[in-house]
Structures are given as structure tokens and as C-alpha cells.
Design goal:
seven-stranded mixed beta sheet; 9 helices; globular
Amino acid sequence: MQSKQNLIALRKAQFQQRLLLNHQLIEIVKHTDSHAFLTNPAAHNVYLYLTNYVRVCSEAWLKTKLTTLRVLDWGCGKGHISFLLREMGAMVTSCDVTSGAAFGQDAPIIDRASISVVSLEHPYLLPFNDASFDVVLSFGVLEHVSNDLASLHEIRRVLSPQGLFFCFFLPYYLSWTQRLAHLRGDFYHDRLYTKKLVKNLLSQSQFQLIDLWHRQLLPKNRISYVNHHSFESLDRWLTENTFLKYIATNIEFVAFKN
């Protein structure tokens, strides 16, 4: 395993990567309004570098190629994370509260890429054996479950020893975008998180924190930027090096099964 310091440096390096857009994914979703954010280079780029970070971090920590690791896309939603990881050669199991559709919406990625989705019938219990996975992913999922602590206990159960849990897009309690949404009556994220709360939840569920960071100061889903790579570099620099990180949209972390 790599040291925590090495993995923090690795994350910062990977977030600077300028990756090519996945035009196959864009082609699949271009006529589906609910998936329009994936056609916006600024938003699309975020998923590219986050999934690439999952690959590089997992390989460094577990000392093996991604192609040999068992990955759970927990709450796979529209299927774009499963799609990108499968293109990297990962053995991905996708699961969600629905099977074959993302929260009642059209699911062109799931349908076109023939992604099999395991249906979750319980608020937090998972239909998998102990130590079934080496990596579990939460791309904007943990904040929506009915019992986050119980869900973390269950994720730990299905992880192998030293297995990794990546949590992205966790809404931060001081986020200016979340506060603005609440003022407008939009409570899609009705539960916001502090770093202290994250650490307490991980401690109670017997996870060991590796890395915790702020990300995304400026919105990306609906706004198009002339040079999305340069914009992302600026956004990342502001959330790493200035006080503005304390009003960024998300906090994110990676932890391992202790």
C-alpha cells in the first residue's frame, strides 16, 4: 500500500490531467434531456478525471491492475460511471434502487451499453456477500440514503480487507451553491455535511480516512466554458489554495476498510 501522503499527492496530480472527452458517451446521451450535463465539456470532464483517479488510486493502494479489481458502482444512477470504468477494463457491478432506469427517467447509457443493474430492495442492506468487492464508489449517493451510517456499515461489510471507499459530490454545509438552492426552495440536497461529521461517520463505521478535500467552487452542469480544462484548473487551484474552498460545493474523500 502507498502512504497517505503519497496518495494525496497522487490525487492532486491526477486532478490536473487533461483528458480527451469520451465522444461515444456524448453520442449516446445527446438526445436525452435528463443526461444533457454529460454533453457539457466542463461537467463531462469532471467524471473523466474522477474515474481516472479511482483507477490510479486503487492500483497504487491495492498493488494490482484495475482489471483484476471488483468494483461496486453503488447507486449507479444514469450509468455513466459504470460505462467509463468498464471502458477502462474494470469488473463493475452496478446497483441502484431501480433496475434498468435511473429514478424513472430514460436510461440510454444503461440500455445501449447493456449494463446490468442489480435492484436494491432495502434502504441500506446490500444483496452481496461479505468481502465481495475491492472498491466501492459513491458518486453523489451517500447524501441521499435514508441512513448514512447504516449504509457505511454495509459498504464496509461488502468490502475486502484494505478495500477502498470513494465518496464524491458530498454536499458541503457552507457551500454557496447549496445555500442558494435552498433559498430557491430546491432541497434536492436536504442533508449537508461537515468534515467533522464525515470523520465521525467513518470512525463509527470503522473506516480509516486516507484523504479528504474540497472540490468545485463554480457550477459546471449547465454552464459552458470556452476552455473547460483551463477553467477546471482555476477552480481546482482556488479550492486548494484559497479561503474560497470553504464555500465550495463539495467535500470528497477516500477511506479504507480498517
